[in-house]
From TrEMBL:
Record-linked InterPro entries: DGDG1/2 (IPR044525)
Family: Belongs to the glycosyltransferase group 1 family. Glycosyltransferase 4 subfamily.
Keyword check for Chaperone: no
Keywords: Chloroplast, Membrane, Plastid, Transferase, Transmembrane, Transmembrane helix
Subcellular localization, as worded in the UniProt entry: Membrane; Plastid, Chloroplast
Principal location class: membrane
Cellular component terms (Gene Ontology): chloroplast outer membrane
UniProt-listed GO biological process terms: galactolipid biosynthetic process
Record protein name field: Digalactosyldiacylglycerol synthase
Molecular-function GO terms, alphabetical: digalactosyldiacylglycerol synthase activity
Spans through the membrane: 12-30
Highest taxon of the lineage: Eukaryota
Record-linked Gene3D superfamilies: Glycogen Phosphorylase B (3.40.50.2000)
Species: Elliptochloris bilobata
């Protein structure tokens, strides 16, 4: 009920903003050249409304396809890794002319997110690093272009955002006629300029992150409702079609659900090496269970601690030792998670962050992923390809992974304990060839080509087109105002792109966002049973603030 009420409240708020914004747009921009150009474009579209628009496919040879990403290698995040691999395999498996469009960061921002504070002086240096990584990861040397756009890393939102109008860069430098927007809502939160669908004839968005779930966890149900509505609008405004990796994501206009990610050949090769016992006999896997993830609350660490605490109580009641689990990763909440694990007396050992293909991880036979905030967990897909057991929760984000024979899915703490006991006692059977094929990026590319096709009946309708044009005009008006941009974390001096790619400097920031100004800040969280205020002194919101207790934790306590 609270969720529904929050969504209704957010709808009323944004309806009011639309009215104000429409008036502002009429008064402030009706006479501008940009407005007149938009009106001419709208009239051309109106002339076509009476005729069905022909279907469009990415399988047509020779099309120029831009894959636009919010992150770039060597940042080893899923939103950098998967778009890079998608571009590589699109270029390798199809006759498309593929262009990967990625952000270029100032060196101060690079040092914040790249491994070992690595930095690059020029885009050419980072491009060489990216191509070397692709060849090492896939064995391919695909022929595709890399185009850069100026970006900035936001320390509050922990993400990279474009500086200036990205559509202009993609149109001028990539010369694309079809576009895949990796995280379309993320790319357009602060976008001021033409709609992507006005500049390009075939625009497909791929949703990587459940921002609604993250908003709910970090700021309560009201902000979850606002986030849900805003992201739905932005996808409608800028995409002809939206691909959801799983139904863990909110409903979106013109959506289709399909997992278009895969595992790189290195993982399949690692799994093939574990199909037979060693020559001298013995076990194929010599180590037990592990988990690998960025250590931030909201990535499954709270759930994992609760489950392992419950498993430890069950084991001690039976006179057995708790299961030992090795954890690999780093992140803002590392010290907090370690402290919780020590306080609970868990047999959880923390190790430095490692690449999932690191040889030291090959001998583990059980991979645990307790997260329910992912859309699709890349590490789970990789673990399956490596021939391991996967233990994961019954959740929409795991539906695709759960279709494989080595996936052990739990709904309760008791099922988790049973699966962990079984997986540690028995080695996983080798995956069938068909399942290995489905896990690969070649199959993922075929799924993407099918899902990204747009049939005659799938284009925006006349009514939805008019609604989306109104929404865009309103939103575009607000994102063109510097005070508004400063207030909502868009960053100072980010409305227009710098004169040269490397000219943007994020450090001289005279304004800063209101989110930065309110740290430490008072936040509001709406839970199922209580209304709580909490103080986040560092911006690292731990489980201490959560108003809702999870079903798994409640079940564990009852037991």
């Amino acid at each position: 009920m609270l969720d529904q009420a929050a969504h209704q409240a957010a709808s009323l708020l944004y309806t009011a903003l639309i009215s104000v914004g429409a008036l502002a747009a009429f008064i402030g921009g009706a006479r501008t050249h940009a407005y007149k150009r938009r009106r001419r474009a709208q009239k051309r579209l109106q002339q076509k409304w009476g005729k069905p628009r022909p279907a469009s496919s990415l399988r047509v040879p020779g099309r120029r396809l831009a894959v636009v990403s919010t992150a770039a290698i060597p940042w080893m995040t899923g939103t950098a890794v998967n778009p890079t691999l998608r571009a590589a395999y699109m270029a390798h498996c199809t006759d498309l002319k593929v262009i990967l469009v990625v952000p270029w960061l100032a060196r101060s921002d690079q040092a914040l997110i790249f491994p070992n504070q690595r930095t690059f002086e020029r885009p050419a240096e980072q491009e060489a690093c990216m191509r070397e990584w692709i060849k090492k990861r896939t064995g391919l040397s695909p022929d595709f272009e890399i185009v850069w756009y100026p970006g900035r890393y936001d320390r509050t939102m922990l993400g990279i955002f474009p500086v200036g109008d990205l559509t202009e860069i993609v149109e001028a430098d990539a010369r694309a006629d079809a576009v895949i927007l990796e995280e379309p809502e993320h790319l357009t939160w602060f976008h001021h300029g033409p709609r992507w669908t006005d500049r390009f004839g075939h625009v497909v968005g791929i949703i990587h992150t459940s921002y609604r779930e993250l908003s709910k966890r970090n700021a309560g149900l009201v902000m979850a409702g606002v986030s849900s509505l805003l992201n739905s609008w932005l996808c409608a405004i800028h995409c002809h079609k939206v691909i959801k990796l799983s139904d863990a994501v909110q409903s979106l206009p013109r959506e289709v659900t399909c997992c278009v990610h895969g595992a790189a050949p290195g993982f399949v090769t690692a799994g093939a090496g574990k199909t037979h016992a060693p020559e001298g006999g013995g076990r194929r896997f010599s180590k037990g269970a592990y988990c690998l993830a960025k250590v931030v609350w909201g990535k499954g660490w709270e759930e994992l601690l609760e489950l392992l605490e419950y498993q430890g109580r069950i084991a001690r009641a039976r006179g057995e030792a708790p299961a030992h689990v090795d954890a690999f990763g780093d992140g803002e909440a590392l010290a907090s998670v370690q402290g919780k694990a020590r306080a609970a007396g868990l047999a959880l050992a923390f190790h430095a962050k490692r690449d999932h293909l690191d040889p030291s991880l090959a001998d583990y036979q059980v991979f645990i992923n307790a997260s329910t905030s992912d859309v699709v967990a890349t590490t789970s897909v990789e673990a399956l390809a490596m021939g391991k057991w996967l233990i994961c929760a019954r959740h929409a984000c795991n539906d695709w992974a759960a279709s494989f024979s080595n996936a052990l899915v739990y709904r309760t703490p008791n099922e988790f304990v049973a699966h962990l006991t079984r997986a540690l006692a028995h080695e996983p059977p080798p995956l069938p060839e068909e399942e290995l094929r489905r896990l690969g990026w070649e199959a993922a590319t075929e799924r993407c080509l099918d899902a990204a096709s747009i049939g005659e009946h799938e284009w925006p309708t006349r009514l939805s087109g008019a609604q989306e044009a109104l929404l865009w005009g309103t939103y575009n008006t607000f994102t063109g105002l510097e005070p508004v941009r400063l207030a909502v974390c868009a960053g100072a001096n980010t409305l227009h792109a710098p004169e040269t790619l490397t000219a943007y400097d994020p450090n001289p920031n005279p304004g800063g966002s209101w989110l930065d100004a309110l740290r430490p800040r008072l936040q509001l969280s709406l839970g199922s049973s209580a209304l709580r205020f909490f103080w986040a002194s560092t911006g690292d919101c731990t489980d201490d603030w959560r108003a809702e207790r999870r079903p798994i934790q409640a079940a564990a306590k009852r037991s």
